[in-house]
Amino acid sequence: MIKGEAAGDHAERFAEIAEATGSEWAAGVSARTRALVSQDAAAEELYRQALDQLGRCGMRVDLARTHLLYGEWLRRRNRRTDAPAQLRAAHDLLTSIGLEAFAERARRELLATGEKARKRAVETHEDLTAQERQIAQLACDGFTNPEIGTRLFLSPRTVEWHLRKVFTKLGIRSRAQLRQVLPSAVFLLWGAALEVALV
Question: Are residues 119 and 165 in the same domain?
Answer without folding.
Answer: no
